[in-house]
Amino acid sequence: MSDVAKPRNPEDDWKIWLVLNPATWLMPLFYALLVLAIAVHWVVFAVGLGWQ
């Protein structure tokens, strides 16, 4: 048996920030999202579904 208590959501939702520190991960996540958005737009325009 494990001694780790089961999370009581949503009361324990704040604890994710103890693992995912925004000071470390926020900007890399935004940059990854920007790269993904640019890639999706590039594919859409390359297929010919962009503005006419």
TrEMBL record:
InterPro entries named among the record's database cross-references: Antenna_a/b, Antenna_alpha, Light-harvesting_complex
Summary of the function given for this chain in its UniProt record: Antenna complexes are light-harvesting systems, which transfer the excitation energy to the reaction centers.
Top-level lineage group: Bacteria
GO cellular component: plasma membrane; plasma membrane light-harvesting complex
Subcellular location: Cell membrane
Identification of the protein by name: Light-harvesting protein
GO terms for biological process, alphabetical: photosynthesis, light reaction
Domain Antenna complex alpha/beta subunit residue range list: 13-46
TM spans (from-to): 29-51
Pfam families: LHC (PF00556)
Originating organism: Thiorhodococcus mannitoliphagus
Main subcellular location: membrane
Cited Gene3D superfamilies: Light-harvesting complex
Keywords, sorted A to Z: Antenna complex, Bacteriochlorophyll, Cell membrane, Chlorophyll, Chromophore, Light-harvesting polypeptide, Magnesium, Membrane, Metal-binding, Transmembrane, Transmembrane helix
SUPFAM superfamilies from the UniProt entry: Light-harvesting complex subunits
GO molecular function, one term: bacteriochlorophyll binding
